[in-house]
Amino acid sequence: MKASVQQASPPQDPSTDEIIGEATQLRLYLIYRVALGVALLLAYFGMGRGPLGIYLPEVFTVSVHLYLGLAIAALIVYLRRAGSDEKQAQRAIFVDIFLITVMMHASGGVQSGLGMLIAVSIALGSLSLVGRTALLFAAIASLTVLAERIYSQMSGAFTGTAYMQAGLLGVSFFALALLAHRLGTRAAESEQLASQRGSDLANLA
């Protein structure tokens, strides 16, 4: 009588699915940045400027072109798998904070509403970040918006200071960063648990 020998499948690395999930989130974030740059260009040149660049149109034009160019470059670098995903996400969020703040100032400050685009970038980027890096970028964004308000007041750029709006915007940065990071962590834990259960079932078969 021949004994049937069952060969157990090799256990999967539980971090594999987590890495794949984070890579997918980063890819969606980078694609969003390209779409945002295109949308801002179309809104500024093709569909009527509205409040965009109403204060400093030349600065806004340079900033939006630079933003789109860097967003496309970041997506190409990601698709070619050059560099770590963590570093790419950090660079993308930093660029978003700086250039969107510049575009916000060129469009009349916090009242233009462009500051919420920073919040969206922090939220999407936080999904692929680990540790407390998301909170660090929320703090950097809050200080950047506050610095823009102080500069606007000292230079007499705008009549209103809008410190209350800047403060509320900063609170939204932290809230969205915490929420997005928590959701990303739970999604990674769920994927890891599902992968582990699948591996256990395969070993029992």
Strand content: under 5%
As a whole number of angstroms, the C-alpha radius of gyration is 22 Å
| Largest β-sheet summary | none
The helicity comes to over 70%
- Continuous helix count: 6
Low-pLDDT runs: 1-19
Through-space gap between termini: 22 Å
Structural class category? mainly alpha
Average predicted confidence as pLDDT: 80
Overview of the structural elements:
The protein is mainly alpha-helical and 205 residues long. Helices cover 75% and strands 0% of the residues. It is elongated, with a radius of gyration of 22 Å. The protein starts with 14 loop residues before the first helix and ends with a helix.
List the helices and strands and how they pair.
Layout: H1 15-46, H2 57-79, H3 85-106, H4 115-126, H5 133-155, H6 163-204
Helix pairs in contact: 1-2, 1-3, 1-6, 2-3, 3-4, 3-5, 4-5, 4-6, 5-6
